[in-house]
Design goal:
The protein has helices at about 5-20, 170-190, 245-255, 310-315, 330-375, 380-425; strands spanning about 55-60, 60-65, 70-80, 90-95, 100-105, 115-125, 130, 135-140, 150-155, 200, 205-215, 220, 230-235, 240, 295-300, 300-305. It is α+β, with helices and mostly antiparallel strands. It has 3 domains: about 55-140, Immunoglobulin-like; about 150-320, Collagenase (Catalytic Domain) (3-Layer(aba) Sandwich), CATH 3.40.390; about 330-425. Strands 9, 10, 11, 12, 13 and 14 form a 6-stranded mixed β-sheet that branches. Strands 3, 4, 6, 7 and 8 form a 5-stranded antiparallel β-sheet that branches. Strand 13 and strand 14 form a beta hairpin. The termini are far apart.
């Protein structure tokens, strides 16, 4: 091989090696991705599946469901509302289902006419909406009883009641509400001789008491559908009431839940005839269900009816009950009266004796005067003896009568002192 041929072979081999060697990256080059996303013509984003929903518990006042975690759910309440009184909400607000997949609502469930309601539940997640799930519930609640009554006291406007609000009565309304909330439980227990029970609640009450800053007639309202409530006006026929009168009126209207019906009652559910209850005194002597509720003022103290009579206790459903225990003021009045009664009897007896003695003294004096007139020149011995006998009787009777008069006056002073104590009592104990 010639030298020229050998050089040509080396050149070809060098060229082959260069062609087969990998390219060296420059500083500005970047590594390429393993794959590139490619849009497929005619296709859109993938739609999420609708969330699954199931109702696990359905009662009036509470709803429990299970659903896919992260779903947002709400529910509508379909139920017949009462004509009067409070009603439940119409919709339960949206909530997001927890990771555990459970969700629940509770809401105020006031007493409404017995009916069957339903929940309509739906959920959404990722833009997909579930089918509406229907669940039913019953609004039945046992009849109200005087031994365990729940009451909601509110300043909300009562439904379907026409009245003219008076801004000047707002302080009286608000003060009355505070008083009612703090004392109604104890007042009801005392009114029912320790047997009744009232609990003041903020929601889900047996009955609602609407307290209105207006003038009107307080009433226990009954809807045609069986719904019921109480409207209390803080001003009546004779103007603004005292707070004590408002509370007593509320006790009266609560009593109307059960009282008074039958031949002894009028169309307004009040007794046709007031009957004195043997165990009640003063403003309570006819019970709590007389109309109007009238209070008596003793200085700064206002005394209002606050005890149910025997026939009213029976109307409230009590078959047996203890006698009324008078309060301390009434007990004091009765004690003073017990002391005064024999004094009055003694005074009457002494007065009769004094009157009889005075009549006899007058007769003796007339006899002596007649004798003296008959014998102006002097009394014959026999007549003188008669005259002296009459005079001795007269003088003796004067002394005896004066002693009775002294005893009468002393007893009268004691009776007056007792009477003054009785009149000073801050209650009507009669």
């Amino acid at each position: 091989m010639s030298d020229r041929a050998a050089i040509r072979r080396l050149a070809v081999l060098f060229a082959f090696l260069v062609a087969c060697a990998p390219a060296r990256a420059t500083p500005s080059s970047q590594p390429s991705s393993a794959a590139t996303a490619v849009d497929v013509p005619g296709t859109g984003a993938v739609t999420a599946a609708p969330p699954k929903v199931r109702v696990t518990s359905s009662t009036y006042g509470a709803l429990q469901i299970t659903a896919d975690a992260g779903a947002e759910c709400s529910a509508e309440i379909h139920v017949a509302f009462g004509n009067v009184g409070e009603n439940p909400v119409r919709k339960l607000s949206a909530q997001v289902v927890s990771a555990a997949g459970a969700l629940g609502w509770t809401y105020a469930a006031p007493r409404i006419p017995q009916t069957r309601g339903e929940y309509a539940v739906s959920c959404t997640r990722g833009g997909a909406k579930s089918e509406t799930v229907i669940a039913t519930f019953d609004t039945f609640r046992p009849p109200m009883v005087a031994t365990g009554l729940t009451v909601h006291v509110t300043t909300d406007a009562p439904p379907d009641e026409n009245f003219a609000p008076d801004p000047s009565l707002v302080p009286l309304r608000d003060t009355s509400v505070v008083k009612m909330k703090s004392t109604l439980t104890a007042e009801w227990k005392a009114a029912t001789r320790g047997l009744g029970g009232v609990q003041v609640v903020d929601q889900s009450a047996d009955i609602t008491v609407f307290v209105v800053n207006a003038r009107g007639t307080s009433v226990n309202r009954h809807g045609a559908d069986g719904s019921e409530d109480i409207v209390i006006y803080v001003s009546g026929e004779f103007g603004p009431k005292s707070v004590e009168n408002v509370v007593a009126t509320t006790l009266h209207e609560l009593g109307h839940i059960w009282c008074c019906h039958g031949p002894d009652a009028d169309d307004g559910a009040h007794w046709k005839q007031k009957l004195r209850d043997p165990g009640l005194y003063g403003v309570d002597k006819y019970g709590l269900m007389t109309d109007p509720v009238t209070c008596v003022t003793f200085g700064a103290i206002v005394s209002c009816p606050n005890r149910f009579s025997d026939r009213e206790m029976r109307a409230l459903g009590f078959t047996s009950f203890p006698p009324v225990t008078p309060d301390a003021c009434v007990s004091q009045g009765l004690s003073l009266q017990a002391k005064l009664a024999p004094m009055d009897a003694s005074l009457s007896t002494m007065k009769s004796q004094i009157d009889a003695n005075r009549a006899k003294l007058s007769s003796l004096l007339s006899q002596m005067s007649a004798i003296s007139a008959q014998y102006p020149a002097g009394l014959p011995p026999a007549v003188f003896a008669t005259y002296e006998s009459l005079r001795a009787q007269y003088n003796s009777l004067v002394d005896a009568n004066n002693a009775v008069i002294d005893q009468y006056n002393a007893t009268l002073e004691q009776a007056k002192a007792l009477d003054a104590q009785m009149n000073a009592l801050a209650c009507d104990w009669t």
